[in-house]
Amino acid sequence: MADTKIPSGTAGREPGAVDRPGRPSALVNLGRTRARATTGTGRLAALLVSPTLLVLTIVVIYPTLMALHESLYGPKGLDPKTGFIANTEPFVGLKNYTDIFTQAGDRFWNAFWNTTLFTVVTVSLETVIGVAMALIMHKAFRGRGLVRASILVPWAIPTAISGLLWRWIFNADGIANVLVGHQVLWTADGFSAKIAVIIADVWKTAPFIGLLVLAGLQVIPKEVFEAARIDGARAWGRFWHITLPLVKPALLVAVLFRCLDALRMFDLPYILIGAQKNSVETLSMLAQNEASNVRFGPASAYAVLLFLYVFLIALAFVRLLGADLVGDGGVRGGRERRTGRRGAVALRRAEVTA
Question: How far is CA 139 from CA 2, 148, 218, in A?
């Protein structure tokens, strides 16, 4: 009887099973193709992002590291240990940072609280006024283009020109005192100087928030408001339950940008009131004043602290309100949570109408 050899690899297979030659190699080739595609996509992404990373390195990372390095050194001058004039900046470690917790840091804390006050007050007023401007610019009426142009003009004026303009308005014989009815020294050092800076800053940058909110209003379907009106919602109810929730992402972005800009306020109080005025001196003004007096170590320390302050505010803002900044991709459940019960009804009516 002839011996029958069973090919290796076929033992134990069911009868009638069809052999598929080359299947493992096909899977391997498919995996290799996907790996090459992923690698190519990653290289392309890195190539496209590299110019941005280069700019950030030159503009942000390198100056920050240099400021951090410079903040560890003191000013040139008489060395108290040797009694000789030092030609190089002495290494003082963290002394420039620890000095802010002593009596020498009173000026720093004054500038810190001025910066915080200006940020909180101006951004709050600009948000309210900017939303009102956006609602006005969004309405359809005759002469809307002229109204939009007149509202956006203050934002288009350079800050230096705006500071000079308001300095003339707040002059002793200026228009502000004529309207008030008595003599107020607006540009002198005092509480009136704070009011002058707040008024000038709100006048200039409120249109910026209004412009971003207007962009958010224009993407809201008109059917939503019509459905809410049919549902019996009044004007205030439509604004509170529909307009404000739907425009919240754009509003939060505008508020974030304005907070970061207000924390770095320098040119407006510098031109409007002047340098070394305790009532309006901000952290940026303090750092510039220290640097102009060849005290680069303390100036760099103040700049680093301001950078950390701005970074922490931005990080807290994004972490706490990050979901609202991004939005939730148009899912109706998420939209209903953002707009509330009346807004959800309006959205359903608009979807049925569409």
Answer: 98, 11, 10
pLDDT in tens, 51-81: 888 888 888 888 888 989 998 988 776 666 6
* Alpha carbon distance 97, 81 (integer Å): 21
Are 303 and 287 in contact, with CB atoms under 8 Å apart?
yes
DSSP structure string for 68-126: HHHTTB--SEE-TTT-SEESSPPB-TTHHHHGGGSGGGHHHHHHHHHHHHHHHHHHHHH
Residue 82 has φ and ψ, to the nearest 5°, of -100, -25
H-run or E-run covering 302: helix 296-326
Angle, vertex CA 172, rays to CA 167 and CA 176, nearest 5: 65
The tokens for 148 are 């939009």
From residue 223, how far is each of 213, 219, 246, 250 by CA, in Å?
A: 19, 12, 14, 20
Buried b (16+ CB within 10 A) or exposed e, 250-259: bbbbbbbbbb
- Comparing CA positions, the residue from 204, 83, 196 lying closest to residue 153 is 204
Per-residue pLDDT reduced to its tens digit, 311-341: 999 888 888 776 455 444 443 444 444 444 4
- Tell me the CA distances in angstroms from 268 to 8, 190, 350, one per residue in order: 86, 16, 46
Task: Supply 343's token pair.
Answer: 């807004």
Going by pLDDT thresholds of 50, 70 and 90, the confidence category of residue 353 is very low
User: How many of the other CB atoms lie within 10 Å of CB of 204?
Assistant: 23
Torsion of Cα atoms, 234 then 236 then 240 then 242, to 10°? 40
Rounded-to-integer distance, Cα 16 and Cα 309, Å:
74
Rounded distance between C-alpha atoms, residue 280 and residue 200, angstroms:
13
Whole-number Å distance between alpha carbons of 287 and 298: 8
Beta bridge partners of 89: none
CA distance 155 to 161: 11
